[in-house]
Amino acid sequence: MSRFERDHEFVKKVQKTMSEDTTTEAQKYFTRWMKLTAGEIANAFYVFFDPAGNGLLQTQRAVTYYLTKADFDSIMNQYKALTKPERANAKLRFYLGCDPKYISGVVQEDSPPFNPFAKLLTDAGLAPFANCKKMVWSSNSMRRLSDRLYPNPPNSDGMISGNNLYLNATSVSGQVNESVISPNTANLFIYEWCKTPDAQIPDLFSGEVIEEVARVKSYNFSAADLADVYEMWKSANNSGEDLLLALHLGVILPKLNTPFAFHMIMQILPIKSYGPPIIVDQDSTTGAVFEYAYPCPPYCQ
After folding, report:
1. Is the dihedral of CA 134, 71, 177, 62 positive or negative?
2. Up-side HSE of residue 171: CA atoms within 13 Å toward CB?
3. 155-212: pLDDT as tens digits
4. Region 118-128 average pLDDT
5. Which of 20, 87, 134, 141 has the highest count of CB atoms within 10 angstroms of its CB?
6. Which residues in 38-72 are b (16+ Cβ under 10 Å) and which e?
7. Is 199 helix (H, G, I), strand (E, B) or coil?
């Protein structure tokens, strides 16, 4: 069985277990995430998996998740139906979550316990977890990431000296969007996640908010980011191309304008014939990479 066939079968298995109404499921995952002790967090990102399909299982850390095409299309169609004022206030939220069946100290097979959910945020006053879309862990992200990053980390081409990493930002919708970063910059953030020692992972999700230490709950990508994503999706639809929304786990140190070192990096890219192209591709000429997502707390609206 080829890697593409294995990935396809894995996605079908995940979808089969997903409820048609993910409101309750998303809330359960979110609640389990918030109840994790510091000692349980690192293990929640690991999976016991056979990356080569040769029967040799190994433990690996999660790097990337993605929305199925159906769920991505659903969110974009929800956005399409919004009025112009509603679009101006819309955001794309990613809730952090953990499998409610997660047992501390046990590495799960098939998929890691940690699992984010995506939701289009509008002013419609819906329940917090209504219309959430469960993301799928990418089983080939670590292998492809290893091909690019190890044993040497990425170089710093495209990085800007000082605190501004976004001076080369471009915008699909024609306006400046400082969340758009180069693939090489994104790879640096992902590399930091991959090399963070297990003992330090809990600290990435904790930060001081209004003089209290809090755990991050979710990340919002802005209305400008969402507008850019929609324009790419609409253009791809018009040309008969299928796009994928991928979410990469990253770390930025020192912390920049946020209480948390952990960051989510969103990538929009075409679906390739070999299966989900889950990796920030430095050679890609299509799609875009977004980072800056606003963490909750403190940005919870």
Report:
1. positive
2. 14
3. 433 332 223 333 344 455 555 555 676 667 777 888 899 889 999 999 999 988 876 7
4. 79
5. 141
6. eebbbbbbbbebebeeeeeeeebbbbbbbbbeebb
7. helix
